[in-house]
Every structure is written in C-alpha cells, then in structure tokens.
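RECORD CONTENTS
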Amino acid sequence: MAQTRNKQTRNKRATIHGRTGTTMRRTLRREAPTTIGLLTDEQDFAAMRHYRTFTFDDHSVYLQQVEGLLKALAAQGMHTTVALFDPEEYAEFCAESDITADSPAGRSRFTAEIAAAGATVAYTGQPLATLIPLLVSRAVRRATWEYATMLLAGLGECADCGEDVGRAAFDRASHLLLRTLETAGPGTHHLVCSTPTDDEQLLAALHTERDMSGPARLDSAEGAEFVTVLAVGIALERRGGVVLRTSAPGSPDRVHGWRLTRGSLAPLTAGEVFSAYCTDADTGEPVSPESGVEYCAGFDIGADEPEPHH
C-alpha cells in the first residue's frame, strides 16, 4: 500500500510539474516579442514565389492571412512588429551568411536581422491599408539616412584645416535647424529639406511642436535624418532648400522657404515660396494653391555665418 501511495504521489507531482511548466512557457511566450517580415507589393511577392517552400500564390490572400495572424497575436496579448521584407536583400543575406534561401528558417533569420537594424512598425490593431504606407515610408527614410550618412563619411578631411568635412557639415546643419526652430516660435511645425546629389534627390521631413513656454519637441530619429540630409547639401555645396509649414489654432497655415547656399539658409521671397509650393515637381505644371494657407517669405533665422574654409 505504501508503495502504491508513493507512486500515486510521484505521478501527481509529475502532472502538477508538467502543468506548471506548460503555464510558465505560455507566460514566457506572451512576453516574447514577435516580428513578421511583410512583402508589401506584388513584385516582391512574385520574387519570393520562386522559392519552393514559399507556399502562397496570391498576394491578396497572403495579406489577408498576415492580417489575421496579427489580430490573433494581438488577442493573445503579444507585442508584434512588422518589418519590410526585401527579396533582393534576402538573397544577398543568405549568400553572405551561407544560409539556404529556400527555407522557412532562412526567412526567419533574415526577418530577425531586419527587425534589429531596419525599419519596423508596431502593430496596434491598425488595418494593413494604414500600416503598409507607414512601413514603406519608414523604410525610405532609413535608406535616405543611410545613403546620406555614407556620403558624409566618405568626404574625408578639409584640405585647408584638416577638419572632418562631414562632421563640420553635420554640426552646421544642426545649428541651422536649431535656429530655424527657435525663430519659428510656437505652433505645430512641419519642415521638409530637399538636397540634390549626383544620384538622386534626397528628401527629409521633420514634425515638431512648440508651446509658448518651452523648446520645440521633436522625434530624435527624424531630427537626425533631417540634419544629415541638410548636411549633405552643405558639404557638397548643392543648392538645396528648406520649407517650413506652421499651424496654429485660429489662424491660417503659414508656409516659409529658404534656399541653401554656401552653408547658410537664404530666405526666399513670398513669390518664390508660392511658385515652389504650387508647382508639380514631376511635370512642372502649376497646381492650385491650398485654401487657408498663406505663402510667406522666409524669415531671417539669425544663424552665424559659416567659417570661410567650409
């Protein structure tokens, strides 16, 4: 009888331990973040169909299944982020890492890599129609920032003074942005910087808010991207430009503009701002001005002049 009771006790403990272990693993699973690599357009989706282990054959159905998975994970209380899955970068990653590309494990490894270093969007219940444009926008912003950073890093030292040209241009761009925000005053500000390079037109946008009593509040990542793109124009001495749109309660939006020249922001006239804002960038055709918007000359931001050798 004693042996029977001991055996029953051991079996009961084993059952309890097993249930406890399962419960703990479920708890840990809810606390482990999940990342999904998303193929946002049909061209990228078609490229992945060349892999035998990628079993989807319809992009619309694929997106529906992804959205269903996101909702299911959210219902379990799990934090999920979505990353942009690029087939060309995936193939390069597998070749460099000696990983079999035609495998779920390979796709999972790549997704983990881009989640750590690439653009992601947290899923908070928003539909994919809202999430996808935001994800693509962040990916473009990151690619622009990486390209601009590479340009600055490759400029080397000034032949006259030995100072790092890219660093000096970045410091100058930071100064110009700070002075612009300080001079703009209170309100909701949206700035766009455009800088031409030999290969493409670089664009960076920055959204800030400032009340009557404090400095402007801005996202650090957006700020770094904006300053880097502006720094490229300063370092390469390109004729870039900055546009500022300010919104405040009870008054029309105001649009100001500046031309980047010789390391400074020179104010545009009201007519130049109107022309730049009301012209289609692709066709050159005029577009109708917005209602409730005032097109104003750029104001003097009071920035110190750069040193001559930069």
Remarks:
- DSSP finds nine helices and ten strands in the chain.
- The beta strands are 34-38, 80-84, 120-122, 187-196, 201-210, 217-218, 241-248, 251-261, 264-267, 293-295.
- The radius of gyration is 27 Å.
